[in-house]
Amino acid sequence: MLTRTLKNAMNLLKNTIYILLLTLSFACTGPDDTTAPVVVLQGRTTLDIVKGSTYTDAGAIARDNVDGYITANIVVGGVDAVKTNEIGEYPITHNVSDAAGNAADTKIRTVTVIESDTTPPVITLNEDAVITITAGADAYEDDEASATDNVDGYLELVVGGDTVDTSKVGTYTITYNVSDAAGNKAVEVKRTVTVKIPEGIL
What we know:
The protein is mainly beta. 14% of the residues lie in helices and 36% in strands.
């Protein structure tokens, strides 16, 4: 009787250990990974470079839901094929797969080699071109603008025009200008800020 009881206890212990091991194994491995990683290009997706210049790819970042950041595993294709002395369009591909073999959607950067840079930058206001505020308000903080160039990328703007005085009723004009490295000047962009009399005051 004691032997049978001991044997039953041993079998129960073995079964318990087996179940615990299976549970631990599942907890460590988790369910099947079927989600592909995501690749995000750094820098612009399209850009121009002047013939004879040097091209260096800005790279990309890759993250997976299980493996985390796998940027180091990104495979970049097409960089060596960019002929900076030949006018043309060159695609640069960025892709990666996670440890489970799931491949990300390929991200493509298009590099165009041009003869010379004759395209001016483009200035874009971050907010409205016409703004109205009430006199006596806090100091005016301009939302400014951004400038991008087909070759130089993002450029620093020259902000000029009037200084908005919120204590004085009137209309103020703020100007934004920029030129690229080739000397191409953007079309000037303006923002008008009107400081009005508070309601109820004649």
